[in-house]
C-alpha cells in the first residue's frame, strides 16, 4: 500500500504559530476537565470521604482491569450552564475481566447524584452506544433520582432510559447495577430493571418512596432499612442478587459477574500485527490551524494516525477537495472520507457516494474527517444540480450499514455536516478537536443573510433602512453564533462524545474501532434511489 510522505515543515513560522494557538486551547480544555473531576467541590468531596465512601472515578478505577484504558465520554457535559461541569455523572468505556463494557457512575458529590437534564442526555447517549455496540452496562449507583426542579425536562428522557434498559436485556446486552448508596424514587427502577444487582450492606437504599413520603401517603411509619435496605432486598424482596460487605467487595462481585457473561466479539479481529505511523503525532498540534479560514492537508493527518502511514487513495484526481481511500488503524481496515478544501462540489458528492458503496460492499467501517463549509452555492452550481449531488451523498451516508466514526477537525457547517456524517446521522462515535466549530453556517454568513433579508423587507415596504441598527444586529448575531459554534458549547450539549487532544486521535479511534467490532460488520448491498 502506498506510504504517505512527510510534508510538514516543523521550522516554518506558521507551524510554530499554529502549535502555540492550539496548545492554548488545549490548556483551557484541561482546566475545564479539572473542574469536572472536582465534582461537587472540596466541601462535598470531603463530606463524602468522611462517610467512608469512594468517589465515582475511584470506583471506576477499581472496577476496570489494571493498566487498561478508560475512554471517558462527554466529560464536559453541562459546561457553561448553571449545572456542574460533567452533569453529575461519569460515563465511559473500559475493560473489565477482558470484556469491553459501558460504565455509568453517578457522582454523589453533586446534589447527591441527582440527574439533571444534561445528565439525562449524557446517560441517554451512553445507553445508545451500549445498545449499538453490544456493550454490557455497569451502573455504579448512588443517586437521589431526578433533580426535581427540572423534572419537566427529565420525566420523558428518564422513562426512555428505563425502556432502553429493558430492551438491551431482551437483546442479551446485560446491565449490572452496583448500588453504593441511595437509589430512590425513579432511580430505584435502574437496579429494578437490571439483569444483576449488587447492594452494599448498611449503605445501599433502594425504594420508590422514603420514610417521609410513605408516612405522608399512607400514614405508615417505617425506617430506611425496612423500606429499602440492602439486607432487606437480599433476604426479603429478592431485588438484590448479591449482598456486598463494602464498596470494594461490591466491585469484586461486579467483576465476577462480568467474568461469567461468556461474551465474545462478533466482528472480525484486527490484524495480528501492524506498524505504527512513520511520523510523530505531536506534529498534529502544528498542522491544525485554530483560524478555520486557513487550509490544511488531511493527508498530513492521515500520515500520523494510520498504520504504517499507508493510504490507498481512491479517485485522487477527481473531486480533489474530498480525499477518499482505504487504510488500516490499529489493525482494523478503515475507509476514509476527509475534507481537503472545505467546499463540497458535485464531483466530491458523487465520489463520496461511490466510495461509500464500495466500503459497504467490502464490509469496511468508515471514518469521516470533517472540515467543510458545506455544499457549493451559486447560479452555476444550482443549475448543474448541486442539490441532487448533495442528496446523492447524503443518501449514501444515511443508508450505509457499516459503522461510521466521525471526527470534526475544523469546520462543520450546514448540509456539509450532514453529508460528512454529523450527529444527526448517528455515527457510532463522534469526537471533536478543540479548534473545531459547527453550526448552520459561519457567523459572518449567517449575520449577512439576516441583514440582506431585513434590507429587502424594508425596501419592499418603502421604508428607510437603519444602517446603525443593522450594524448592531450583525455584531450581536456574529458574536452569538461564534459562541454557539465552539467546541466547548457543542460538547456541553452532548452533540459529540468528547473533545480530544489531536495527539490522542489514533488511540481514541483505535479504542472506538475495537468497540464497534463487538457487533458484526456487514455493509448494505442496496441503496435508495439516487437522483442522477
Please explain how this structure is put together.
The protein has helices spanning 13-37, 42-50, 56-63, 117-132, 151-170, 189-192, 211-218, 224-228, 230-237, 247-259, 284-287, 298-302, 346-361, 379-383, 386-399, 414-419, 443-460, 467-485, 487-492, 505-516; strands at residues 70-73, 89-96, 99-106, 137-143, 175-184, 196-200, 205-207, 242-244, 312-314, 322-329, 332-339, 343-344, 366-372, 374-375, 404-413, 429-432, 437-439. The model has no long low-confidence stretch (mean pLDDT 93). By secondary structure, the chain is of the alpha/beta class.
Short description:
By secondary structure, this protein is an alpha/beta fold.
Mean pLDDT: 93
Number of helices: 20
Note the main sheet. Answer: 8 strands, mixed
Low-confidence stretches: none
Computed structural class: alpha/beta
Tell me roughly what share of residues is in helical segments.
40-55%
Choose one word for the global shape.
Answer: globular
Distance between the termini: 33 Å
Amino acid at each position: 500500500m502506498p506510504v504517505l510522505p512527510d510534508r510538514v515543515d516543523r521550522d516554518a513560522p506558521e507551524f510554530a504559530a499554529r502549535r502555540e494557538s492550539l496548545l492554548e486551547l488545549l490548556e483551557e480544555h484541561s482546566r475545564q476537565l479539572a473542574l469536572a473531576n472536582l465534582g461537587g467541590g472540596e466541601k462535598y468531596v470531603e463530606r463524602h470521604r468522611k462517610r467512608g465512601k469512594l468517589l465515582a472515578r475511584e470506583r471506576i478505577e477499581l472496577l476496570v482491569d489494571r493498566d487498561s484504558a478508560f475512554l471517558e465520554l462527554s466529560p464536559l457535559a453541562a459546561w457553561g450552564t448553571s449545572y456542574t461541569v460533567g452533569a453529575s455523572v461519569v460515563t465511559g468505556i473500559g475493560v473489565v475481566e477482558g470484556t469491553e463494557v459501558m460504565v455509568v457512575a453517578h457522582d454523589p458529590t453533586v446534589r447527591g447524584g441527582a440527574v439533571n437534564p444534561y445528565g439525562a442526555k449524557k446517560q441517554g447517549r451512553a445507553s445508545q452506544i451500549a445498545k449499538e455496540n453490544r456493550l454490557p452496562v455497569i451502573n455504579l449507583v448512588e443517586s437521589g433520582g431526578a433533580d426535581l426542579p427540572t423534572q419537566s425536562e427529565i420525566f420523558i428522557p428518564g422513562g426512555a432510559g428505563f425502556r432502553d434498559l429493558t430492551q438491551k436485556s431482551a437483546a442479551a446486552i446485560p446491565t449490572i447495577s452496583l448500588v453504593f448508596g441511595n437509589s430512590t424514587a425513579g432511580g430505584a427502577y435502574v437496579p429494578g430493571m437490571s439483569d444483576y444487582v449488587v447492594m452494599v450492606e448498611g449503605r445501599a437504599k433502594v425504594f420508590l418512596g422514603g420514610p417521609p413520603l410513605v408516612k405522608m401517603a399512607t400514614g405508615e411509619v417505617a425506617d430506611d432499612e425496612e423500606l429499602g435496605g440492602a439486607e432487606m432486598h437480599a433476604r426479603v424482596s429478592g431485588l438484590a442478587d448479591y449482598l456486598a460487605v463494602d464498596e470494594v467487595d461490591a466491585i469484586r462481585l461486579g467483576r465476577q459477574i462480568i467474568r461469567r457473561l461468556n461474551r465474545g466479539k462478533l466482528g472480525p479481529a484486527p490484524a495480528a500485527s501492524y506498524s505504527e505511523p512513520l511520523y510523530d503525532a505531536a506534529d498534529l498540534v502544528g498542522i491544525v490551524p485554530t483560524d478555520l479560514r486557513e487550509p490544511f492537508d488531511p493527508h498530513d493527518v492521515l500520515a500520523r494516525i494510520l498504520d504504517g502511514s499507508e493510504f490507498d487513495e481512491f479517485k485522487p484526481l477527481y473531486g480533489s477537495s474530498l480525499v477518499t481511500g482505504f487504510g488500516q488503524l490499529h489493525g482494523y481496515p478503515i475507509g476514509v472520507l476527509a475534507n481537503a478544501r472545505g467546499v463540497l462540489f458535485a464531483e466530491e458528492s458523487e465520489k463520496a457516494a461511490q466510495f461509500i458503496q464500495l466500503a459497504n460492499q467490502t464490509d469496511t467501517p468508515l471514518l469521516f474527517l470533517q472540515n467543510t463549509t458545506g455544499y457549493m452555492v451559486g447560479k452555476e452550481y444550482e443549475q448543474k444540480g448541486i442539490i441532487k449531488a448533495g442528496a446523492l451523498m447524503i443518501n449514501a451516508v444515511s443508508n450505509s450499514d457499516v459503522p461510521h466514526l466521525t471526527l470534526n477537525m475544523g469546520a462543520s457547517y450546514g448540509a456539509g455536516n450532514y453529508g460528512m456524517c454529523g450527529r444527526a446521522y448517528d455515527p457510532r462515535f463522534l469526537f471533536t478537536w478543540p479548534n473545531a466549530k459547527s453550526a448552520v453556517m459561519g457567523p459572518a454568513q449567517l449575520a449577512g443573510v439576516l441583514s440582506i433579508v431585513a434590507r429587502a423587507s424594508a425596501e419592499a415596504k418603502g421604508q428607510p433602512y437603519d444602517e446603525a441598527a443593522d450594524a448592531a444586529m450583525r455584531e450581536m448575531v456574529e458574536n452569538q453564533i461564534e459562541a454557539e459554534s465552539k467546541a466547548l458549547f457543542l460538547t456541553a450539549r452532548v452533540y459529540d462524545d468528547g473533545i480530544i487532544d489531536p495527539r490522542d486521535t489514533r488511540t481514541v479511534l483505535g479504542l472506538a474501532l475495537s468497540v464497534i467490532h463487538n457487533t458484526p460488520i456487514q455493509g448494505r448491498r442496496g441503496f435508495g434511489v439516487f437522483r442522477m
